[in-house]
Write a structure and sequence with these properties.
By secondary structure, the chain is α+β, with helices and mostly antiparallel strands. 13% of the residues lie in helices and 25% in strands. A hairpin with a 2-residue loop joins strand 1 and strand 2. It comes from Paraburkholderia caballeronis. GO terms for molecular function: iron-sulfur cluster binding. Pfam families: Fer2.
Length: 102
Amino acid sequence: MPVVVFRKNGEVYREAVKENTNLVVRAGIRQFPFPHLRYECGMGKCSRCACVVIAGGEHLPPPNWKEKKQLGERLDAGYRLACQLWIQHDIELAQDDPPAAS
């Protein structure tokens, strides 16, 4: 079973998941630790679930057209949309909350 390491706001969450798991689906049904994942539409339209891939990106398929449209240049910085990823191998992701508006 793949292990997902998820980093958010200085916290580290780690969990084995079934192969072919989508983290946004897991977040939606409140399965630990993925309720901490920021997401909204789950369809690649809003990019709220954008995460930086720290490790394991070599096992991911190339970005699809939704990721290219939503992330643009952020793809070069290692960002991917969690809603478009079906986890098949160990992966480490990071997602920090945006700074609060002043």
